[in-house]
Design brief:
The chain is α/β, with parallel strands linked by helices. The chain folds into two domains: 108 residues, Aspartate Aminotransferase, domain 1; 243 residues, 3-Layer(aba) Sandwich (Aspartate Aminotransferase, domain 2). It is 39% helix and 16% strand. Strands 2-8-7-6-5-3-4 form a seven-stranded mixed β-sheet, with helices on both faces. Strands 9-10-13-12 form a four-stranded antiparallel β-sheet, covered by helices on one side. α7 links the parallel β5 and β6. α2 packs across α11, α3 crosses α10 and α13 packs across α14. The radius of gyration is 22 Å and the shape is globular. The chain binds pyridoxal-5'-phosphate. Pyridoxal-5'-phosphate (PLP) binds next to α3. This is Aromatic amino acid beta-eliminating lyase/threonine aldolase domain-containing protein. Belongs to the threonine aldolase family. Its cofactor is pyridoxal 5'-phosphate. It comes from Brassica rapa subsp. trilocularis.
């Protein structure tokens, strides 16, 4: 019997589709470091247009994209960046902005919905003219959707208000939009509207968009900003070893992802909601269905329960369901376009069984009572 596989570890686990592989095979390519790859140009122009910005640049990963953007904005030693204490840049990027970029992070608490308090942002801004003890705040970073809060969306209005603070203080704004398309679909707001506050004239700005998450392309991120910004980013990409030659093969897959998978993103959210609603019926776990705004689900083991995230992950693996523990009592599940509705139902029924087995170990599947001392 072939064990069914339902991979909910992340939305980065998707396999390139047939259409993507065909597009990769027939992509027109040339040397992109010399600036001649036509497919890369096509993807970059497409992304810049969609975001309502002047220019774009393909880079190998979201991590490098964020690093490049922060370093271009903070090109003076002693710069400080304001960002969320639970943001991807701060938590999951090896502290690269400090170790490589020489930039000092000033973290603000991320609220449950992924925002940072506006008053706290403004209060954190520092200027060495006020005191020789201070670094110079130059940049604010937002993340939309906010991954560590479970894929919550930042509204256009919230982003506008952060943009106003940046403008008032002469700061720059960077948006980590690894899953910005998910936010756009969930809020029903065009993607360019969500980044309008990141206006290259009044607020010099940038954003990253990864093609390998919800969109389901195999590799790559695009940075977007003004012409001047992208020129500087291009130099820095080369410095960091991110200059690549015939990248048209990768960009071709990303172009197909935009066409094929972007319209399907709404279904990922529906499937995530379905899964969350099913989980909400089960005993022993806690889940906030209202907080499932996009494609991520966090479920917590109830206090005092026999369940642990690791026990549950192991039992699910036996059914071919892959998930990642968020911590000792939390499981994270991420829905993507290669998860079907039937996968969702299968996951729910396996979970139900696994939880019963863990919570009532004296009952095996046939209902026979085992020696209570044997576990
Ligand atoms: C995945 C992710 C990144 C980094 O992207 P990589 O391509 O994995 O380096 C950055 N920000 C957020 C919010 C992400 O989820």
């Amino acid at each position: 019997m072939v064990i069914r596989s339902v991979d909910l570890r992340s939305d980065t686990v998707t396999r390139p589709t047939d259409a993507m592989r065909e597009a990769m095979a027939s992509a027109e390519v040339d040397d992109d470091i010399l600036g001649y790859d036509p497919t890369a140009r096509h993807l970059e122009e497409e992304m810049a247009k969609m975001m309502g910005k002047e220019a774009a640049l393909f880079v190998p990963s979201g991590t490098m994209g964020n690093l490049i953007c922060v370093m271009v904005h903070c090109d003076v030693r002693g710069s400080e960046v304001i960002l969320g204490d639970n943001s991807h840049i701060h938590v999951y990027e090896n502290g690269g902005i400090s170790t490589i970029g020489g930039v000092h992070p000033k973290t603000i608490k991320n609220e449950e919905d992924g925002t940072m308090d506006l008053g706290a942002i403004e209060a954190a801004i520092r200027d060495p003219k006020e005191s020789t003890f201070y670094p110079y705040t130059r940049l604010i970073c937002l993340e939309n959707t906010h991954a560590n809060s479970g894929g919550r969306c930042l509204s256009a209005e919230y982003t506008d208000r952060v943009g106003e603070i940046a403008k008032r203080h002469g700061l720059k704004l960077h948006i980590d939009g690894a899953r910005l398309f998910n936010a756009s679909i969930a809020l029903g707001v065009p993607v360019h509207r969500l980044v309008e506050a990141a206006d290259s004239v009044s607020v010099p700005s940038s954003l990253i968009l990864t093609s390998e998450k919800g969109l389901g392309a195999p590799v790559g991120t695009v940075i977007v900003g003004s012409h001047t910004f992208i020129e500087k980013a291009k130099t820095l990409r080369k410095t960091l070893g991110g200059g690549m030659r015939q990248i048209g093969v990768l960009c071709a897959a990303a172009l197909v992802a935009l066409q094929e998978n972007l319209p399907k993103l709404q279904f990922d959210h529906k499937k995530a909601k379905l899964l969350a609603e099913g989980l909400n019926q089960m005993k022993g776990i806690r889940i906030n269905v209202a907080a499932v705004e996009t494609n991520m689900i966090f479920m917590d083991m109830e206090d005092g329960s026999r369940l642990t995230a690791e026990k549950l992950r192991k039992s699910l693996t036996e059914c071919g369901i892959l998930v990642l523990p968020g911590n000792s009592s939390r499981i994270r599940m991420v829905v993507h376009h290669q998860i079907t509705i039937s996968d969702v139902h299968y996951t729910l029924s396996c979970l139900q069984q696994a939880m019963q087995m863990i919570q009532e170990p004296s009952l095996n599947q046939t209902g026979k009572t085992e020696n209570a001392l044997s576990f």
